[in-house]
Amino acid sequence: MKSREQEYKEIFIAEALEYFDALNRHISDLERNPQDDHVLAEIFRLLHNLKANAKAIGYLQISDVSHKLETAFSLIRNKELSFSDEVVTVLFDGIDMLGELISNIDNPGAGEPDPVLLRNLDIIVDNLSDSTIELAKVQKYNTSRKLSLSDLIYIQIKKLDHLLNLVGELMIDRDRILSISRDLNNDELMSVSSHLYRITEELQYSVMDARLVNVGSLFNKFPRIVRDIAVAEKKEVNLELIGQDIQIDRNILQIITDSLLHLVRNAITHGIEKPEERLKAGKPKEGRLALTARNDRENVIIRLTDDGKGIDFKQVKRAAIDRKMVTADAVDNLPQAELLSFLFEPGFSLAKEVTEYSGRGVGLDVVKNAIDSIGGRINIESERGKGTSFILRLPTSIAVKGALLFEVDDIYYAIPLIHTESVVSMDISELHEVGDVLLADIKGETITVVYLNELLNAPQEQMRLGDATKLKGQVQNIIIVSYNNRKLGLIVDKLYRQQDIVVKSLKKPLDNIDIYGGVTLLGTGKVCLVLDVPAITRFFTNRR
Questions:
Q1: Domain residue spans of the chain
Q2: What CATH number is given for 4-137 in this structure?
Q3: Closest CA to 267 of 305, 239, 241
Q4: Radius of gyration in angstroms for the set of CA atoms belonging to the chain, rounded to a whole number
Q5: Is residue 364 within 8 Å of 264, Cβ to Cβ?
Q6: What is the pLDDT of residues 465-475, one digit of tens each?
Q7: Class of domain 157-211
Q8: How confident is the model at residue 171, as a pLDDT?
Q9: Which pLDDT value is given to residue 358?
Q10: Count of CB atoms within 10 A of residue 106's CB?
Q11: CATH 3.40.30.10 fits 213-395, yes or no
């Protein structure tokens, strides 16, 4: 497996060779039309970027030559140096030297800068005059140029999307072939199908790997954003970034971009106090904001933490009662996690005033919906006076999901693992009917339990959540799912295995059925419906 340093070096070389090709193209255009300000500006930009990138990664010779050339073109832009034949020759040779240095990064001795050439660049830069006729005498045009192409290419993300869809289709057929070969018990077919399985798996991971980008490509945009919001809010905020080299699917990063921006704005506008308030509270006047990323098995965890005033739970209770989300009698018995889940309800905002960055009616429900759409999870942790954390648990891929397979009334279903907390078996005597709700004590927590058959097959008017008489058998298999800090136990008939599935969206009119998040095809050829845990949890929470 490549090291991070090797990956960064390859990316630098690919970009640097692109810059080199563009510089050659633009300088040829400039020779034909020396007054073209647009071309001059583009050459200057390319050299400036190349200088900065080379310096950042430690290639100081490339940075130094780029800097000399950048200075020369700056003089030409400012009309302090004319683009004469002699100057053109030196600059062409300087760009050739850059190409050699870039191509010989792994072989430094072969690409040493030419000291005559460096002297001529210095003469152009330092003299600020046209008395450079002697320069041409020590130069020669390069007629033995070798052409080379970069080992890296840039691919449009939509092409990778299409490729991943094709791999998904292949995985479905692969599982089908494997199942048929087992049924036929043919050794040769088994051998071929096993090989197909390995190849398809490797292809799947290769395509997924090609779609990965560093979280830093998003994180590194935030220092400027934080500074601008902090200035507008008259606050002082120090942003700490950790884990920029953690990798994630580019589409997932794209989808969460607006959500992360919204959370950062919220943290500064609602969370972090003004300097004078912080000093009164015994805190440093500068607020701390930390944006971190880390891997956790198949997921990426992104955490945004502020050291602000924390969430006012009394205020949340009042707002929830005012919006009739909970009664005044029941609100004090709700656990803290369930109180925090109200923050994700549509229209729920604690903003007292409208500022440039907050209080405009765009709530955390928009963030929640974006995270849900990619099969992720978001949670809040908060302590009054100490601060708040938003924790995003994101899958590494959208198309392929780990899922738990099970059966209800002879029909196969799947639940994405990201919403699955645990699986337990309980005797029917351990389930208690309270009103029309079944409750179970699971690991010290009282959890509502529902029989999925009731939801999936019974007419809504006949549903009684606490009807234990309809359960089959003495021991019940229960899948504990979690969404928005709320847990729910789903009773199923049979549990099967965990496996990666390719989820296909349902076509009209089935796409209007909230409880289904899509469909997949099992190796046996049977259709398997994928349940939408957020929709099911909302359904039962509302009924309760």
A1: 4-137, 157-211, 213-395, 400-543
A2: 1.20.120.160
A3: 305
A4: 31
A5: no
A6: 555 566 677 88
A7: mainly alpha
A8: 82
A9: 42
A10: 9
A11: no
The amino acid sitting at 91 is: L
Fold match between 157-211 and 400-543?
Answer: no
- Strand order across the 287-296 sheet: 237-242, 287-296, 299-306, 387-395, 377-383
C-alpha angle with apex 94: 124 to 18, nearest 5 degrees? 135
Q: Are 443 and 421 in contact (CB under 8 A)?
A: no
- Please list the ranges in the chain whose pLDDT falls under 70: 1-4, 85, 107-115, 120, 124-138, 140-154, 349-362, 399, 457-471, 511-512, 541-544
Please state, in angstroms and rounded to a whole number, the distance separating the CA atoms of residues 381 and 332.
18
Go through the chain and tell me how many residues it has. 544
The sign of the CA dihedral 458, 464, 465, 466 is negative
User: Strand, coil or helix: what is 80?
Assistant: coil
How many CB atoms are located within 10 Å of the residue 107 CB?
8
List CB contacts of 377: < 8 A, sequence separation 6 or more. 371, 392, 393, 418, 419, 482, 483
Tell whether pTM > 0.70.
Answer: no
- What pLDDT does residue 124 have? 67
| DSSP helix/strand/coil, 71 | helix
Q: Rounded to whole angstroms, what are the CA distances from 496 to 198, 400, 499?
A: 23, 19, 10
**Mapped to the 3 state alphabet, what secondary structure does 108-172 carry?**
HHHHCCCHHHHHHHHHHHHHCCCCCCHHHHCCCCCCCCCCCCCCCCCCCHHHHHHHHHHHHHHHH
Q: Can you state the angle between helices 60-77 and 115-127, rounded to 10 degrees?
A: 40
Token pair 């340093």 in the structure block, residue: 5
Q: What share of the chain is helix, strand, coil (3-state, %, to 5)?
A: 50, 20, 30
Highest CATH level, class, for 400-543: mainly beta
* Burial letters 108-129, b for 16+ CB under 10 A, else e: eeebebbeebeebbeebbeeee
User: What's the pLDDT score for residue 250?
Assistant: 87
Structure confidence at residue 279 (pLDDT): 93
Single-letter amino acid code for the residue at 80: E
Cα separations in angstroms, 253 against 100, 247, 248, 416: 36, 10, 7, 20
C-alpha neighbours within 13 Å on the C-beta side of residue 357: 21
Longest dimension (CA), the chain: 102
Structure tokens at 296: 């956790």
The β-bridge partners of 400 are 502
**Token representation of residue 231:** 């200035």
Q: What is the pLDDT of residue 359?
A: 37
Residue 132: predicted pLDDT: 45
